[in-house]
# Entry
Amino acid sequence: MCGFAGFVDAPPRRPADELRALVEAMARRVAHRGPDDAAAWVDEAAGVALGFRRLAILDRSTAGRQPMTSASGRWVIVLNGEIYNFGTLRRELADAGMLPPLGGRSDTEIALAAIEAWGVERAVERFVGMFAFALWDRDARRLHLVRDRLGIKPLYYARVGTSLLFGSELRALTAHPALEPVLDRDAVARFLRHGHVPAPAGIVRHTRKLPPGTILSLGPAAALAGEPRAYWSLGRVVAEGLAAPFPGSFAEAVDELERLLTDAVRLRAVADVPLGVLLSGGTDSTIVTALLQRVSARPARTFTIGVAGCGYDESAHAARVAAHLGSAHTALRVTGREALDVVARLGTLQDEPFADASQIPTYLVAALARRDVTVVLAGDGGDELLGGYARYAWLERLWGAAGGLPISARRGLACGLETLPAGAWRPALAALQSLAPRSWRVRSPGEKVLQLARILRAPTPEAMYAELMATAPVNGAAAAGLPLPPRPAAPLPDLVQRLMFADTIGYLPDDVLVKVDRMTMAVGLEAREPLLDHRVVEFLWRLPLAWKRDRGRTKRILHALLARYVPPALLARPKHGFSVPIAAWLRGPLRAWADDLLAPASLARQDALDGAAVSRMWQAHRTGRRDHGGPLWNVLMLQAWLEAGRGMGR
# Structure
């Protein structure tokens, strides 16, 4: 896991020393991603510069340094991530007589050999891994930017003037003088709605995120031309899964999942540095831990964080799971004050404004693990692939109850719900909630009623889901330009499958994986995701939905597999998430911090928002008239990011 930056300049060219100085400045912006080494490579005649920051994981000698040149001298690469099946690729190349003499034993060297032997696209199609890389073809004077299938590793690029800029994080691009750091107003609107910046947009004008599973190839005379092309797509995977479903029984499917996941974990356990697991005690991280124990010669290292006062303390349960599996476990229970201390740093920790509050415990557990290990395995992806989110069942029930009504009737019902302000709903709903089971109770029930009204106005279940997933409402023309969840190329008659598909290509890479990448990289820790091995993803889409979720049971096949390693009673507990009391924090311990960021002078200095509207919202919230915690948190994360960047030079 590392960080890179680079650019290609069209004529007139810069001299070599200027190219090197500029790319080194860009790479310094991502030094946290690679604290072990720094290097650069330039081609003055071609106007190309590549910079690299290294976190040494495999072959920690100088033979593993990047930028790396192929044996023939034709290809030069900077690669962030890991090609896990490099051992298999090396044997295939050797058997075919296509393996050049090797200077080391890194996966990057094998990736270059595979590209030299098979070409860029055919080689990438054979890679099993998480990766983003920039590859310069010195013969053809052609640049290739490549991102892994699920979007685990980030890759930004920008076409500005006569330059093409690229890098692991946005902050590297803003170090180049060609990129004027001006906010993209459409991206700001989308951030305020979603709490993250959905791909392919970047928050800075002209910047883009390379979509997962694509290659962007740019020729010598047209450095600014060309569009990404897909070498893998979930849409194709879904279509092929429907056309060729798994032919075996449920028990045989459990066997096959065990085989695939065991291999995924085995490949991700290869490292020349200490390795562990982020263990919450939930299904996903527990199966990863169990399988790592199976393939390892020594007990796995596991790490858990608990945050007091946030409804997020899984440390006791995770300790019981770790004791059963026999891992060497480390747990830390932090105070709410320690969690609050992270909030003040979020503007600098995230590369773009980002409002998912679960980044707080992610950072804390990453910092804990980094004391002892350099690589961790994580369980991300299970909810999207196996229907684990409760919101799927909620929307399915809502659409079943209201979807048959004419849209006019649903809009009339929504108008009825909106006749009373949120505050007027509170007394009656509070009384009802006191009679309901604790698991049914929600914070800010009045605001939830108004959100339900917005959801009911949506014409389709996909539009309902988009409104449900919005962390803040956006109305009028701004809302009209916001995207709905995409549909796969092949028709999926089941609503839950359509939502799982949408989250796998949207919410997962744009939110979940951004959070994990940035928070682990902030402390120089590499996170690996066995459940997102593309072979596992392809297999799961060949299975019927009932084997994933059925009659209220989620992740059915994964639970069946986990029962081979852990007693079911140990996992018989409700699913927990990180539930931050944002509204209370903003009226209490975070009020002074929020006051500073939302002061008229700060809002005017950044000029990103309607200052008068934000001030009215803040006044209503802090006096308790309304609960604007969600929208205000998004605003605060934007302001914190802008203040940390001061002009977005980052």
The radius of gyration is 25 Å.
